[in-house]
Structures are given as structure tokens and as C-alpha cells.
Design a protein that fits this description.
A: two-stranded antiparallel sheet; 21 helices; 2 strands; globular; B: mainly alpha; two-stranded antiparallel sheet; Multiple resistance and pH homeostasis protein B (chain B); MnhB (chain B); CPA3_antiporter_subunitB (chain B); transmembrane helix (chain B)
Chain lengths: 494, 140
């Protein structure tokens, strides 16, 4: 079954097509999208096992020889990210049943989610730089729909900004690919890597590397290119924010990681130092934002920016510990961000406000929600048995090994700010005197929303406690990142 | 006062079929000459737009009772289905097959599964264009 690695892309796509036949039938929409996502989850977990036992999986469309056709490559890094994103989509769809509203469900909400997952998985799995662009557009088109669906004034205003930024960055992406193509004459990522190694990365390739950093940095929201993210992400409803916050920026981070470990590895002193400086500044910007606001959604959104900085700091080290930490941290961060957005969404439903100062005393009436939130918050900050610990520890270790002592301390310091920012939500919303609570009749959905959120937090706890079991898989991923020839040999079959 | 644009209507009745046939020609010629599903689809859609300019939306909908959303979905399904044929033969995804057939009237003809994929593209292009134009032009 040489096409097995395509299933995580094809199943969501086929499901989205089936859903388009009856957009108004809500039961049909819900059951079919759930079935599709469960099938995709099973397929992607099987794929992890296959990649672990059989090595990197490669298929080139239409049986064309290797650098000429479009290649899809499932190495362990891509496969882990694909699995994580499908799991998150599964929980988001489950969470959406009671939170997104019937009007949106009848207007292609579920096809939008599934097409976005198609794009995200395609971007993770592709081995062709222009195909990466196409999958970026697939996921962006679907995300435009999701950000504007419902048509509230705020959404319309913010989606214009969001679309404008992404159109500009996509145009820049095409220009950069054109430049790269004119220099190396190929689009296959493995072939590009080999060609760049042959010519030894002259100045023009380094320039292209920086251009790629700008392009993917706009998608991933690194400092100074994160300006669009906080307000654009605050506008759509909670399940959509959870999807965006967990997946979209991480695709940009993945693309930076891929290009900076596969292509631009011959002038590390310049490119990776630039990445290091920018990631530290990204963390600073995120920390300032997270402490500046009393809006619960915005606090978590600024934490997305901090996490992007932390992961890229790990990538910038270019040693085994740093990359291993980045792999652990990106998976952890996708899961925990989705869980935190879910929980914050429940808090907003219960209190009817997103302003922290108007909340209080929820722990008496909602103990399960309170303690789940506390566990998720500790997980985000990286308290030892929980999921954020191992990734951040390895990243700091990698930083110290590479001799970046001050910036590694900076990462540790940022953990304190992260903890402070999320614990502030706990203190304001759950402690103190009881304030406004929406009456019971208007919030029947509380339990239906709580179950997926608690399960997702349980998964992150398992991810942290069971790090030992996950390590061999992460090791597979890092082996490819640390040595590009593993990737190129697998694709070009030399 | 209602304008009686009989000249426009008569001309469109003739030119619609010419444009439509030309679009089918462009669509079928795509493998060996400039053309293909995308241009063919756009040209068909422009013939339909000409009908929309001459008559109103309701009349055109009554003339051609097509649900364009369905058309788009069928087109996507056709494209995905064609690309997946090879999966069942153990080849890589998107492998196309072709062979020569003796067809009465046409003689020796080459039939290629890329044609089915192109039909999918054609349906999607016509469907999407018409959805855009109808939803902007109509007033609920």
C-alpha cells in the first residue's frame, strides 16, 4: 500500500466533498464529519507506526521519477504533527456541536474545518516547495471562510486585515520560490537540498533563506511580523480560535523548521543567529502582550506568540537537544493551546463576559472546570510531570550546550511570565467573591462543552507523564532534522 | 416603462449556442492544443452570464434548473475519484491511464483518464463562477 501516507490528506478532503452535498442537514453534517475525522485519526496513528518501523515513507504522484513528480514525504516530524492536528480537529468538531451555533453549521462550517485540515496536513506532508505553497493556500482559503463565517461586524473588520496580510505574504512566497527556482532549477525539496549543498550556499541562497523567514514568519507570527495576529484571532468564535491558535501558526513554524534544517544549513552563523535573535524578541513581545490585557481570550492568544518564539529558539540551536525539545514543545503546545481555548470559551459562556475584572468565585459552583484549568495552566508553564516540562527543559539544555547562556535564561524567565499570565485568569475568575453568572437556563451546554475539554487536558497530561514512551518517535524525527542526507536519500533513493 | 430588447434576445439565442459549442471544443482540445478544463469552464460560464444579462435570474434558473453547489461538489468528487483510480491498481496516486479505441464515426481515438479529471475541473469552474455571480446578482 504505497499510497497509505496520503490518507491523512485524502480522508478529510473526501469527507468535505461528501458534506457539500447536503449543507442544511445538521445531523448529517455532524455524523459524517465525526466519522471522517475518526477514520483519519486511526489512519494517522497507523502511519506513525509504519514510519517508525519501516522508515520514511515516500510516494511520487503518477509514478514519475523522483525530482520530476510531486513527492509526498512522511518523515516522523511531519507524521507527528499531522496526527496532532487531526486529533485537535476531532476535539474541535466535538466541541463545536454545542458552541458554534446552528446558523454557522448550516453554512459550510464543517466542510471549512475539514478543508483546513486537508491543507494543514498537506503542508506538513509535502516534499515539494511549490506544492507547499498550494497547500498553504488551501488552508488559508478555508481559514478565511472560518474567520468570516457568521458575519458579525467585528469578524468582517478583522478578516479584511487577516486576508490582506496573508495575500501579501503569499505573493512574497511565490516571489521567493521563483528566486529559488531561478538559482537551483528545481522545486523538489530533497533535490533543492542536494543542489544547495553542491554550490555551498552562496550569498543569494542566504538572501532567499532570509526571505523564507519573512514569508513563514508572517504566517507563524514572529517578531516584528506578528502585528496582525492578536486582533484577527480575537474576532471569530471560540472553536475557530482554538483551531487557528493550535494549527495555523504551527504550520509556519514547521515550514521554518523544515527549510532551516534541510536547505539553509551551510551558513548557520548568519541565518540561525538571526532566527535566535528574532525568537527571543518574539518571546518578549508575547510576554508584554500577555501581561498587558484583562481579556481572557487575548491572554491565551499572546501565549501563542510566546510559544512560537520558544519553539524557534529550539530550532535555532541546530543541535540534537534543541531540535528534540522543539519537537516535544510544538506537539505539546498544539494540544495545550486548543485545550486552553476550550476552557476559556467555557468560562466566557458561564460568565457572559471576556473581561477578567468582571469575573470571580467560579470555583464554588464549577470545581471541575477550575481544577482542569489549573492543570492546563501548569502544563502550559512547564511544571514537571506535565506536558510542557520536557520540551522546554530540552530546549534550554540545547541552548546551554550551544553556548547561548543569556538567551537560555531568557527562556526560563519567560516561563515565569507565562505562568503569571495564565494563573491570573485562575485567580481572578475562580477565587474571590462570586460575581455575574449567566443563569442556568441559558447555558445548558456547559457539560457538553466540558467533556471534550477535560479529555483534551487528560491527553496533554498523558503526553507529559508518558514522555518516555514518546521519546523513540521523537528521536526518529530529530534524526531526520539533524542530518538532511537521511531525508534526501529516502526521497531520491540514492 | 419596460424596454423591449428584442434584438438582444434574438442575438443571444443564436450566440449562446455558438459560445457553448466553442467552450466544449476548447475543453476537448486541451490535451493537444491550448485549452482545457479551466478555460472551457470559464467560457461556458460566460455563455451562461450572457443569458443572465439578457434575461433575469429567475428565467435562467427555470431554463436551466441546475444546483451549482451540487455541480461543484460533483466536480470535486470526479477529480478526486479519477486521481484515486490508480490506488486500486497498486500504482501511485494520480497515475493516469490511456489507450486507443476504435469508436464508430470518430475512428481510432485516444481516451485518457486525464480527461475525467479535466471534466471535474470543468464542473468546478462552471459551478464556482455561477455561484459567485448568482449570489452577488441575486437579492435573496
Amino acid at each position: 500500500m504505497i499510497n497509505f501516507l496520503l490518507l491523512p490528506i485524502l480522508i478529510p478532503f473526501a469527507t468535505a466533498i461528501i458534506l457539500m452535498f447536503a449543507p442544511k442537514k445538521i445531523t448529517f453534517q455532524r455524523t459524517v464529519s465525526m466519522i471522517g475525522l475518526i477514520a483519519a485519526t486511526v489512519a494517522s496513528f497507523t502511519l506513525i507506526q509504519r514510519v517508525h518501523t519501516l522508515g520514511i515513507q515516500v510516494v511520487t504522484f503518477g509514478n514519475w521519477p523522483e525530482p520530476f513528480g510531486i513527492t509526498i514525504v512522511a518523515d516522523m516530524m511531519a507524521t507527528i504533527l499531522v496526527t496532532t492536528s487531526i486529533v485537535i480537529a476531532l476535539f474541535t468538531v466535538w466541541y463545536s456541536f454545542r458552541s458554534i451555533g446552528i446558523e454557522r453549521e448550516q453554512f459550510f462550517y464543517y466542510p471549512g474545518v475539514l478543508l483546513m485540515i486537508t491543507g494543514v496536513n498537506g503542508a506538513f506532508l509535502t516534499g515539494d516547495i511549490f506544492n507547499l505553497f498550494v497547500f498553504f493556500e488551501v488552508l488559508l482559503m478555508a481559514s478565511y471562510l472560518l474567520s468570516v463565517i457568521g458575519g458579525e461586524k467585528k469578524q468582517l473588520k478583522e478578516s479584511i486585515k487577516y486576508i490582506l496580510v496573508n495575500v501579501v505574504s503569499s505573493a512574497l512566497f511565490v516571489i521567493t520560490v521563483a528566486l529559488l527556482y531561478s538559482v537551483v532549477g528545481t522545486l523538489n525539496m530533497a533535490d533543492i537540498s542536494v543542489k544547495i549543498a553542491e554550490i555551498g550556499q552562496p550569498g543569494i541562497i542566504t538572501t532567499i533563506g532570509v526571505l523564507f523567514l519573512i514569508v513563514f514568519g508572517l504566517k507563524a507570527a514572529i517578531f516584528p511580523l506578528f502585528f496582525w495576529l492578536p486582533s484577527s484571532y480575537a474576532a471569530p468564535p471560540i472553536p475557530v480560535i482554538a483551531l487557528f491558535g493550535a494549527l495555523l501558526t504551527k504550520v509556519g513554524v514547521y515550514a521554518i523548521t523544515r527549510t532551516y534544517t534541510l536547505f539553509f544549513v551551510h551558513d548557520i552563523a548568519f541565518t540561525h543567529t538571526l532566527l535566535l535573535v528574532l525568537s527571543c524578541l518574539t518571546i518578549l513581545a508575547g510576554c508584554i502582550g500577555a501581561l498587558s490585557t484583562f481579556n481572557v481570550k487575548n491572554i491565551i492568544i499572546y501565549n501563542v506568540v510566546i510559544a512560537v518564539g520558544v519553539i524557534l529558539f529550539g530550532v535555532a540551536q541546530m543541535n540534537e537537544e534543541g531540535l528534540m525539545g522543539a519537537m516535544f514543545y510544538i506537539t505539546h503546545d498544539m494540544l495545550i493551546k486548543a485545550a486552553l481555548f476550550f476552557l476559556v470559551g467555557i468560562i466566557v459562556v458561564i460568565t457572559g463576559t471576556a473581561n477578567l475584572k468582571k469575573m470571580g468565585g467560579l470555583i464554588k459552583t464549577f470545581p471541575v472546570l477550575g481544577w482542569t484549568y489549573l492543570i492546563a495552566a501548569f502544563g502550559l508553564a512547564g511544571i514537571p510531570p506535565l506536558s510542557g516540562f520536557i520540551g522546554k527543559m530540552l530546549i534550554v539544555k540545547g541552548g546551554l550546550e550551544a553556548g547561548n547562556i543569556w538567551s537560555s535564561l531568557w527562556i526560563l524567565l519567560s516561563s515565569l511570565v507565562v505562568l503569571l499570565s495564565v494563573i491570573r485568569i485562575f485567580i481572578y475568575a475562580f477565587w474571590g467573591e462570586e460575581k455575574t453568572i449567566v443563569p442556568l437556563a441559558e447555558r445548558k451546554s456547559y457539560k457538553a462543552l466540558l467533556i471534550p475539554s477535560v479529555l483534551l487536558v487528560a491527553i496533554t497530561v498523558f503526553y507529559g507523564v508518558g514522555a518516555e514512551w514518546i521519546t523513540p518517535y521523537m528521536q526518529d524525527a530529530v534524526d531526520v532534522l539533524i542530518d538532511p542526507s537521511v531525508y534526501t536519500d529516502a526521497v531520491l533513493k540514492e | 416603462m419596460k424596454m423591449n430588447n428584442v434584438i438582444l434576445k434574438t442575438t443571444v439565442q443564436v450566440s449562446f449556442f455558438i459560445i457553448f459549442l466553442f467552450s466544449i471544443h476548447i475543453f476537448l482540445a486541451g490535451h493537444f492544443a491550448p485549452g482545457g478544463g479551466f478555460v472551457g469552464g470559464l467560457l461556458t460560464a460566460s455563455a451562461l452570464v450572457l443569458l443572465l444579462l439578457t434575461y433575469d435570474i429567475k428565467t435562467v434558473q427555470k431554463l436551466l434548473p441546475i444546483n451549482y453547489m451540487m455541480m461543484t461538489a460533483v466536480g470535486l468528487a470526479l477529480a478526486l475519484g479519477t486521481a484515486s483510480i490508480s490506488v486500486f491498481f497498486g500504482d501511485a496516486f494520480f497515475k493516469h491511464y490511456f489507450s486507443h479505441f476504435e469508436i464508430p464515426l470518430l475512428g481510432n481515438t485516444e481516451l485518457h483518464t486525464a480527461m475525467l479529471f479535466d471534466s471535474g475541473v470543468y464542473l468546478v469552474v462552471v459551478g464556482v463562477t455561477m455561484i459567485i455571480i448568482q449570489s452577488i446578482g441575486g437579492d435573496e
